[in-house]
């Protein structure tokens, strides 16, 4: 289905203005060139609570369908709108992608939530522990970014859509990766951040907040 038809079908994305899960879905939509209606809101929005039993973002609405988990939204969009495929079609590599997404959610995104969603109420020791754990994990996995232009792939995939918004926010989490040892990750970020779709996927708030990082 074309991007124009997607607009006619009435895709609406409820998105936070600066949140890595919302950014993940905006990035999927941009890479796939799907037009949509964007509503910027936050978790406290009463209208969101009436649409979503978990009152969480992002949330996608299309006709009578309401989806409110980022991994489910991204897979739905890739299945329904076939242009610029992000998931593998073959069962084995697709299962591997799903498994990586699950692992990233469990191991990385939960740590990012700890540092980004509750910075004012998080005690210093818990924050330092989360920073150290995520930083050390990324440092140890640097070789995974060494041999391919994208995450373990010659081709851009859904895993890149998921990782890029998290990597963009590493400085906001207080995480600085050593430039020499983590050079493959720094080069990976430069490639991803310069993709036109990545820039297009960002809100004005994100472009302002991360302007210095994007200009490097």
Q: What do you see in this structure?
A:
The protein is an alpha+beta fold. It folds into two domains: about 5-80, Glutaredoxin (3-Layer(aba) Sandwich); about 90-215, Glutathione S-transferase Yfyf (Class Pi), Chain A, domain 2 (Up-down Bundle), CATH 1.20.1050.10. Helix content is about 55%, strand content about 5%. The chain has helices spanning about 5-10, 20-30, 45-50, 70-80, 90-115, 125-140, 160-170, 185-195, 195-200, 205-210, 210-215; strands at about 10-15, 35-40, 60, 65. A four-stranded mixed β-sheet has the order 2-1-3-4. Helix 2 (about 20-30) runs parallel beside helix 4 (about 70-80), helix 2 (about 20-30) crosses helix 7 (about 160-170) and helix 5 packs antiparallel against helix 6. The model is unreliable at about 1-10 (pLDDT under 50).
- The CATH class of the largest domain, by name, is Mainly Alpha
- Record field, number of beta strands: 4
Mean pLDDT: 91
Task: Report the helical percentage.
Answer: 40-55%
Cα Rg: 17 Å
**What is the CATH fold-level name of the largest domain?**
Glutathione S-transferase Yfyf (Class Pi), Chain A, domain 2
Instruction: Kindly report how far apart the N and C termini lie.
Output: 37 Å
Which parts are unreliable, with pLDDT below 50 for 5 consecutive residues or more?
Answer: 1-8
Biggest β-sheet, characterized? Answer: 4 strands, mixed
| Estimated share of beta-strand residues | 5-15%
Number of domains: 2
- Series of H and E elements: HEHEHEEHHHHHHHH
- Given helix and strand content, the structural type is alpha+beta
Give the strand order of the largest sheet, numbering strands 1, 2, ... along the chain: 2-1-3-4
Shape: globular
| Helical stretch tally | 11
